[in-house]
Amino acid sequence: MPHAATASGADAAAPGGEPVGPLERGLAVLRALAAHPGPRMRPGDLARTTGLARSTVDRIVTTLTRLGYLRIEDGRDVVLAPRLMELGNAYLACCGLPDTLEPLAVALADELDESVSLAVPDGAGVRFISQSTRRRTMALAFQIGDLLPAERCAPGVLFAADWSPEQRAAWRTRLHDDPRDLGFPAVPPRPEPPASDEVEAAFRQREADARKAGWAVDDQLIEPGLVAVAVPVHASDGSTVCALSVVSHTSRHSARSLAEHALPRLRGCAARMEAALESPVPATARPAPAGPDRSRAPKEELGPEFLQSLARGLAVLTALGSAPGGLTLSGAAEATGLPRATARRALLSLQQLGYAASAGDGRRFTLLPTVLELGYARLSRLAFAEIAQPHLARLVEQVHDSASVAVLAGDDIMYVARVHTVRIMSVSITVGTRFPAYATSMGRVLLAGLPEQEAAARLARAPVRRLTPFTRVGAAELAEAVAQARRDGHALVDQELEEGLRSIAVPVHDRAGQVVAAVNVSTHASRGTPDDVRRALLPSLTDAAAAIEEDLAVVTERAGLPIP
Ligand code: PHB
Q1: Rounded distance, CA 385 to CA 389, Å?
Q2: Considering only Cβ atoms within 10 Å of each terminal Cβ, which end of the chain, N or C, has fewer?
Q3: DSSP output for 168-231
């Protein structure tokens, strides 16, 4: 038991950095998964990619799975889980730029009716921290967290003005080592490796042009058709904090006409942003992952398989997101419930690994945009059904009956995800299947989630038919069934859609508390009484809905998620 000592013992300076090691190695595993082209990796692949021992990878995977940051699929494949976006959300909250600037970016996108983005420098790359998207003809849509090579976008030439000689050297090395941009999964790779001296000369020229003009252009550097114009947003000390870009397509604008069309308003918006940075808006309150130390219980449960210093390091990382501008050492210790020495070691380690920096007077620690490389963009691309699916699968494992997620579509419910066991319906249900809302458990909880008048209007308008001898068809009866679902927080429908079929559903809420979907389990009507069904299924069903809601909340903290 290498670090099962008392808190102070474990905190003692450890030559060789053993207690820090697990954090560093855990982050390496997350990076490997995030950079992997496919969605899943075997532990053996992770060991090969990271150079870590297989037993180390196993412990890291156990720890990160227990924290909800990874998931195991099909018994052995390792997958990033939506909750991991907590880390990137912490950076976005800590840096404060989206909270302060995004409303202005959204207003600009509305004014111009074009996509607008905010990007920050990340090493020699360009990392998106906000996207207000109006993408029409564009094949490519960048997400928060995506990284672009500096020389293939508009913001990069603006950021290069502040590069140190070391950063420029690092950029050159990268051009040389990865000429096709394979290390940038968000951009199409270059078909042929370009001559790096030509790339550098062109970049220098664009830098000089941008310096003179005060703005930069991307004339289809990423892909044919995509054009962008960017202006810098400066801090009061003159440094470039971020770039504000407007993005369009050659079917609407040439690079030149986009500049003519957008520049005056881009500049006006950047000036408002610079003013806003002088008095940043207080960020929306985020729940601080307040102590006591959350790693204690899993450590007791899992023993040496649980890497407590990895869990604690990540707790410190997420805690830095509880306040814009970061935390002091004492603040981090308090927010995580960890001893100061433990928090300090994690902070120094995060700093050394390039995920945190000490800011301002040197007493505060802030997060850096590189935190977003830990799977943020990839997880941002998950569809609602993909978020729900693993929770349905787990539910089905628990209850051994089929489970589904559906949304309201007019007078119907429409299935968006399903995991089935044996088929008990006469018709097979797939994604896209519709049933009349009034006769289904999911329909009733979805209707119950609407304002009462709207639910009543929908019921009044829906063509109601007696589908089985049990179908409730009277207006008052149906209204009462919906009202009961509203009171109970669930709906049980007994053979009203199909004889022999009983189904129970609960709502799924978004961050704002709106019902956006429903999850159900369907079972044979012969299996006990309706109350037996409630007792047997409701706890697991409620847990599944809560797990989907938790994921939804993390995933949509910064960006919308279309729910079909
Ligand atoms: C974008 O926001 O998608 C974007 C911004 C600048 C570019 C290219 C794309 O140069």
Answers
A1: 6
A2: N
A3: HHHHHHHHHH-TT-TT-TTSPPPSSPPPHHHHHHHHHHHHHHHHHHS-EEEESSSSTTEEEEEE
Q: Residue 248 belongs to a domain with what CATH number?
A: 3.30.450.40
Phi, psi of 171 (to 5 degrees): -60, -45
Per residue in 543-552, pLDDT tens? 999 999 999 9
User: What distance, in Å, lies between the first and last C-alpha atoms of the chain?
Assistant: 49
Return the structure tokens found at 449.
């989630």
Say whether pLDDT at 433 is over 60.
yes
- Ligand 1 atom nearest the C-alpha of 154 is 10
How far is the centre of ligand 1, averaged over its atoms, from the C-alpha of 377 (Å)?
15
Structural domain ending residue among the three candidates 332, 358, 380: 380
Residue 215 lies in a domain: yes
Dist. CA 34–CA 278, nearest whole Å: 35
With residues binned 3-state (H G I as helix, E B as strand, rest as coil), the percentages for the chain, rounded to 5, are 50, 20, 35
CA gap 510, 506 in Å, rounded: 13
| Rounded Cα–Cα distance for residues 449 and 51 (Å) | 50
Q: Is the CB of 218 under 6 A from ligand 1?
A: yes
Is 245's C-beta closer than 6 angstroms to any atom of ligand 1?
yes
Supply the residue whose CA is at minimum distance from atom 2 of ligand 1. 117
CB neighbours of 330 closer than 8 A, spacing ≥ 6? 340
pTM over 0.85: yes
Whole-angstrom distance, CA of residue 473 vs CA of residue 496: 10
Lowest mean pLDDT: which of 50-54, 294-298, 532-536? 294-298
CA–CA distance, 553 with 506 (Å, rounded to integer): 17
In this structure, are residues 68 and 62 in contact, taking their beta carbons and an 8 Å threshold?
A: no
d(CA 340, CA 407): 48
| The predicted structure's pLDDT at residue 264 | 98
Q: Whole-angstrom Cα distance, residue 462 to residue 468?
A: 17
φ, ψ (nearest 5 deg) of residue 489: 80, 5
Q: Would you say 93 and 288 are in contact if contact means Cβ atoms under 8 Å apart? A: no
Q: Quick check: 87 and 317 in contact, CB under 8 A?
A: yes
For residue 142 and ligand 1, the question of a CB distance below 6 A is answered with: yes
Range of the domain at 35: 21-83+287-380
Cβ-contact 85, 557 below 8 angstroms: yes
pLDDT at 404 over 80: yes
Distance CA 44, CA 33 (A): 12
Tokens of 273: 């942003």
Could you tell me if 370 and 352 are in contact, meaning their C-beta atoms sit under 8 angstroms apart? no
Clarify whether residues 394 and 510 are in a common domain: yes
